[in-house]
Amino acid sequence: MKIKDLLKKEGIALNVDVADQNAAIDKLIELHNKVGNLSDAKAFKEAILARENKGSTAIGMGIAVPHGKSAAVKTAGVSAITIPAGIDYKSLDGNPSKLFFMIAAPDTAADTHLEVLSKLMTLLMDQNFANKLIEAKTPDEFIKIINEKEAEKDKEEAAKKAAAAPKAAAPAANSGGKLVGVTACPTGIAHTFMAAEALELKAKEMGVSIKVEKDGSGGAKDILTDAEIAAADAVIVACDKNIEMGRFDGKKVIITSTKEAIHNPKALIDKATSGDATVYHHTGTVAKSADSAANESAGRKAYKHLMNGVSHMLPFVIGGGILIAIAFLLDDYSIDPSNFGSNTPVAAWFKSIGGAAFGFMLPILAGFIAQSIADRPGLAVGFVGGYLASTGATFAAPGGDVPSAFLGALVAGFLGGYIVLGLRKICDKLPAALEGIKPVLIYPLVGTLLIGIVMCLINPIVGALNAWIAGVLTNMSSGSIIALGALLGAMMATDMGGPLNKAAYAFGLASLANQNETGYMIMAAIMVGGMVPPIAIALATIFFKNKFTEAERKSGPVNFIMGLSFITEGAIPFAAADPARVIPSLLVGSGVAGALSMAFKCTLMAPHGGIFVFPVVGNVAMYLVALLIGSVVGCILLGILKKNAVEA
Fold this sequence. Notes:
Oligomer: single chain
Shape: elongated
Number of helices: 24
Radius of gyration: 30 Å
Strand content: 5-15%
Number of strands: 12
Distance between the termini: 40 Å
Helix content: 55-70%
Structural class: alpha/beta
């Protein structure tokens, strides 16, 4: 996409005679309407004025770039006017504004236009270019000037990219010093790139080496490495929003705004190179940058990706789990034991809201794992993969048939991230003109298609596994009942909502239908096996604090509620963070509880409910003993097997 694709000839008016700022805005909106970019001009003007109220979009040098993001925008576009006489647009440099570009952005996730707009913003930092536009006589000439400058810029960028490819080292030093910087604004549309361009142009003029990281709406570009930061004499942070500052700990840092970088780049560079900047001391956790991450082991990288998914998933697990527990507390079991949790309107409401939160759990897990691997473009692909894992989509049943649940979501998250990374490498060979459509068309479209194919292949395998397991369990029910209880309990803790867990639970439901003591004993063993994992984890966070991070210790006690409510999924964040040690510990604890429940001949006629159906459990005292012993065994094993936690 080119600038001319967003700026039509019909959206340009030259030598306009308007009285003030409001009239200029009205004229620019009128041009947008004429092109067909807007569905509601009045609503869009409200968005424009709301942005102006936060600070004038007149960047100085005779240029103003009013912009707004609104549902009233049908199609992303730009309108332009020139007012050679100039008007007061409240510019920070106090000079009248003569050249106006109004950006209309739709209030959707579609950001195809952002790459083009960022390029336009950097072009405007060339005063000669801006002057030519102001002096243009016709819209055709106006567009021709832009096209020629854009082609020149594309050529420069391609040459810069080619020159940088073989050597990933920091910029060469020179007599003027070596600086790094970061620019960022809330919208990431205009000021981010204009501030970066202003610093880069002035630094080049002054003989100073500088690399600027641009934190735009489409994601960060030209990300600074540890080596580049370490080698820099100072850092210029020109940002209008919060960014990660820990990486600059101990460096001389100048903190300012994007507007200051646009208007006074020389003053900032002079201060940075003179040594007058203050040494920055970070008070929070120091985040590692891209190159330090590259030196980490594959296991450590996978763990960090996993924890990104787990940390975002945890609020959904806790919020949804507690609401479901409240539903059981408020419900009347005697109305319909098979529908316990939804028998009364109030209980059904709580369970519905809690279930909605739970429904997001696996897509969130997979989405943020993928985002950690492939940055923002990976998010959508991971979300879709996690959703397909939760619904069990197959080629034969796209709506869902055999969910692969927790384990499937883990696979979807990692595969989704690496699929997008693969697409990036392939797309690097595409022409620079297609750069803008990669993150909003190619990555989500092709990535979603590929993850859909993968998940539709994985889920049927899970279905076949479930059918085989059901047959094995049916055969075992005529043999050792205690061994069956141990197996069923362990299966409930193996993947917590995945194929093994679901197979055990489905077997329990089928056994209930037999309406005999053996069937009721099987259901009791299954429920106690599902209650143990969260309780064991809650106990471990209390008795083995050094094995868990601070965040895990804080959320740990909530698992008492989930475990007692038979919400096994409360253990998922902890299992996901350290599956090799947590799952075996919980598996053994649940297996012990299931075996003891069978040995004590405990029975249960309800398919769910946790502690809220204990009044109808046969031999309830020994059932509590089985639950307690299984939870303690799991807790002790967690204390033995887990390594001491390292705060990320």
